[in-house]
Structures are given as C-alpha cells and as structure tokens.
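Q: Here's a chain of 680 amino acids. Please give me its 3D structure as tokens.
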Amino acid sequence: MNPGLRKKLLWLHTWTGLTLGLVIVLLAVTGGGMVLRPVLDEIVNRDLLVVPYCTAPLPLDDLARRAMAVHPSGRLHSIDITADPNASVLVRFANKDQVFLNPCDGRVLGQQNEYGGYFGVVDWLHRFRFMDEGRLVAGWVSLAFFVVLIVGGVALWWPRKGVPLGHGLKFDPRLPGSARTLNLHRVVGIYSALLLLLITLTAIPISFVPVKQWIYRLAHDVESAKPKSLPAASGQPRLPMQTLYERARQAMPEQEWMMLRYPVKPGDSVEAEIREHGVPHADSKSYVFLDAHTGAVLRASHYAGDIGLGRKIYLYCIALHSGLVGGLPFQLLLLGAAFSIPVQAYSGLSPYLRRKLRKPVRTHLTLRLAKKTVLTPDISAFEFVDPQGRDLPPFTAGAHIDITVGEGLVRQYSLTGPAADRKRYVIAVLRHADSRGGSIAMHARLAVGESVRVGMPKNYFGLDATAPHSVLVAGGIGVTPILAMARQLAAAGRSFELHYCARSRGRAAFVDEIEASDFGGRTRLHFSDQLAGTAVDFHALLAKAPPASHLYVCGPSGFMDKVSGAAIELGWSDGQLHREHFAAEVRHLEGDCEFDVKLARSGKVVRIAKHRTVASVLVEAGIPIPLQCEQGVCGTCLTRVVAGEPDHRDAFLTAADHARKDVFTPCCSRARSPVLVLDL
C-alpha cells in the first residue's frame, strides 16, 4: 500500500473508532447477549415458557379471553402456539405486552413486554428502540464499522511483500506497554475479522429497506401483497381463532410453531406465520392467509417450494446475524466475535489516550554539588542537593541517576545514600585510568557549588520484598548500590548478609561506615591482600545461604559473572539472581557495519551508520520509539523483528529470547544481516 494512502487510512480508522467506538461496543455487547437466547431462554424464563405435559388444550379464544382479563385495555395482536405439549401459549397485544398462559387450564403464568426481561431489554438496546429511526442509526454505524474498521483494519494489518503472512497472527506478551496493547489489537482484530464481516454484512439488509429491496430485485423476486378477505355478508361474524387455527393446520399439517395474527381492519385476512418441521433455520417461515369470515385458504406459501429466492436470502441474513443457524458451535463463535469488540475498543483506544493524556514527564533536575569527599585515592563521594532546599524525588535501593558531566557526556551512577533521606543524592565515583572523560570530569573538573543536570532516579536493580533472605555481594565500586540495599533491608528488619570484596582496605570505600553501622555484624570483608593469594570461594559462600534466598551482585563484569556462575552451578534460578546492568555507554565494536532497517508497515528503509543506534536514527526519521534507559536494560523499546538476524547487545532479554531472534532492543542492539525488517 502506498505510504500516503496508508497514513490517511490509519487516520480514518483511528477517528472512526474514536467517534463511533461506544456505539459499536453497545451493538456488539448487546448482540453477544442475544446470541445464546435460543439456548438460554428456557432456563432464564422457564416459569413463563414451560408447563406440565398438556394433551387437551383449551380453545384459543378462551385463552385470549383469559389474557384480556389481565390486560383489559389492550388490543389483541396475535397468538403463538407450538406443537410441544410442554410449551405455554403466548398472547401478544398491539403495545408489545405479552401474556403467557398454561394451555390446559388457562392459568396466567406471567406478563412481560416484548422488550422486558433480560433478553427483551438487550434486544431493545441492540435495535436502538429508544430513539426514532434507531434501526437506521444502527445500520449506518454497522456500515461504517464494516467499511472503515474491518476492511480498513485488514488492509492496515496486511503484511507487505516479503513479510511472512503468519507474522501478524502471533501475540507477543513480552512487548512493553503500548506496543503490547497494539499487538493485541492487531491479532484479535484479524482473528475475528471474518465473523465480524459476516455480522455487519447481514446487518445491512436488516437495517436498510432499499438494500432488502435490491436483494429481491437481484433475485427476480417480488414481495406479494397480503390477500384480503372476501366481503362479508351483512352481520356475518369473524370465525373463532380456534377454527382459523385448525384450518391453517389443515393447510400445513407439518408445523412445529405458529403465530396467528388477528386482523386489524375490516377486510383484512388472518395471517398464520408457520415454522414447519425440517426447515434450515428458525426464520424459515411458511405463510397461510385465511378469509376471516369463511376460513377459506386465500394463499398458502411453503418455505421449501413457494418462497422466492430474495425472501430466502433476506431470512438467511436474519438467521446468520442472530445465530439461528449452525447450532451452539456457531453461536459460540458469534459470541466470541461480538465480545472481541470491547477488547478491540480497549486495545485501540488505550494507547491513543495514554499518548494524548500523558502528562509531561519530568526527566531531569538541576542540582547543586554541596559536598565532595575523597574516600580512597581513587574514589570520591559526591553529594547533590536542590538549590532551593526542596525535597528530592524519592528513590529505592538499587536506583541510579544520569549525570551530565560535559557537553553530550552522560554517565550513570548508583545512589548510595539512605532512601529515606529526601534532601540529598549521594554517589561514589571511581576514577578510571582509561576513562574517556566521565570519571575524569567528575573528579577533576566538577567543583563544589556548581550546578549539574541530573536525571530522575531509575531502578533496574530493585530489591525483591518477598525474599526470605538476601545475599548482597559487592566488588570494588559496586558497593554503592549494595550499601543502599543493606541500609534499606536493615531498616525494614529483613534477613540479609553483606559481602564486600576489594583489593585492599585502603582501596575500599565506606568501610568504616559499614563497620560502624547496625548491620556491621552481618558484613564480611574480603580483601585480596589479606587472602594470601587465594580467591573468595563463592560456591562455599552461597551454599550456606538459606533456601529461596536472593542474590544481588554489583561490580566489574568479570566479578559479577563469577559470582552469578557459582549461583547457577548451585541450582539458583534466574528469578533469584539480580545484578546491576547499567553501563557507561552503548557498546560499539570494531566489526560494526552499516545496515538497513526496513519498516514492515510502511515499507520505509533507513540506513544505520556504524556509530549510531537504531533507536536514534528512527526517532530522527519521525518514527516514535519508546525509550527509557537507552542501554538495553529496561526493555521499554523492545520491538518485534519480522525478518533478518539481530545482533543482541542488551541485558534485558534472556538467552532463549536471543536465540528466537524475533524481538530486539533498538536502543543498543544492531543487525548481523544486511537488512533488519521491524514490525513498525
């Protein structure tokens, strides 16, 4: 599809859903509520519909008089009789009121308007009986739903050339936020599209008389006028309804249900609407017209042989729309399709409203460096405060902040101070000999009193509050988030132990503070210069931990791999292992090459340079990508891969996720193939 046309169709699809969505949901939910009426009616209204076995019913005229006695002001409209000896007789009045009677003794079982009771109210809502020309309103909404939302939705869903058709048939629960919701919208929409097309197409001739007439003309069928009774002799009364009922039965003896209509005006015939045995659906009706005074059959039209093709097509539309064909399996399919509409309404509307109503998010603070403390020859602590003395946004143990240390130079540092202290953010920074500018700028150029741009606290290394015991392991500067965790666990009275590994006491930050704390007795210090050349036995250390303990480790990558590897060998599950993942920058490798990203929905192709991320290039091209950490930690930008091989460089997905190659993180990952096709 042409990208410009696609954009216009998407706009039309969105705004049709927004403007007509509530009406469409009303039609769908009420329609779904009606689908199982043939199955549930005898359960819901059993006291009105079911009677003891009756072999000798009273004459219809006696039953009508009983009904009139409880409804004296009404005008009789019709009587419903079935061949089932356990079924009640229904007397209808012109104002839609209905009286149910026991055919054997004439006892009134109850009264209910045609649009009363559960199914009646649902039917009243579905047909828009609460407004003038409600049927036309429902019809126009159905037509818009058919053309714009269903046909247009399928067109928007349809994969472009080269994209597997099955790609759009899978729901991916791993996608984040709005991406997951929109994925649900597309998948549910395509699976329900065929049945929704059937429902809306069959609604159109029901709603629009000209369409019904067009079907008749197309089938070379003509709606015959109802025949009139012969002129009655002076004073000749109308025959009893019981007599007319018996004449209609003689004309069509194989009937299982009949509705006998009372004539309204002098000269009107009596119409018997009949369902015979063996017809394809409940609306396959035959008709007998009787002279009201003589009982002569004026016309008899059997469904099988006398009803025209146009009439049959129209009746099939009603039956398909109402679930009167195919039995319970088809009814359940229609029910599922009807109730997919609320899911579609939510999954389509929710991302739009989230985007439109989302309040601007505060992304950074301007703080003042209040204090700078040398902790070791290589580590300094930095304390930031609000220039106006206001409370800072809260954080939890394990959180970090982004600090802009120079033009375009942003680094991440863990918060190490007490989470309860809202007046300051404290970090510790190790001066790296091979620093590319971050740690050198913090140590050498940042002076007390200077203002610094600081990002809002983020936490991808949070504590699990349900853990019965926590093992905290820090390596070198990795003590910064681990110290905050120890403080939080101690304040909450939780069970934990702290292991701090460093080359020597002189190069370990916060040692005196840890030893003097109320959790000093739960801390073990492991200094390399005191271990006589032996390494810490992490297997033995972790083997002593109570069952279901959780491990938190932070430090150099090799150190974290060693500790985590020991836990995995001991059988610790992924859910028990936690490690700090933020890095100073997105990894770029010597072998990185340019590659193309193709957007499956629009066909647009963008070139990704060696030292650019996919996310940054797409955002520049006007393609919205949800971003947060921008380092492959949080999974916010997770995107489905349609074709091509991603080069995973994130810390969010598991090894199994990487092996499937069907999603990747565009903020940091790249491609091994020349072209990567994304579901965008």
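Q: Can you summarize the key feature?
A: Residues 364-455 form a domain with the Elongation Factor Tu (Ef-tu); domain 3 fold (CATH 2.40.30.10).
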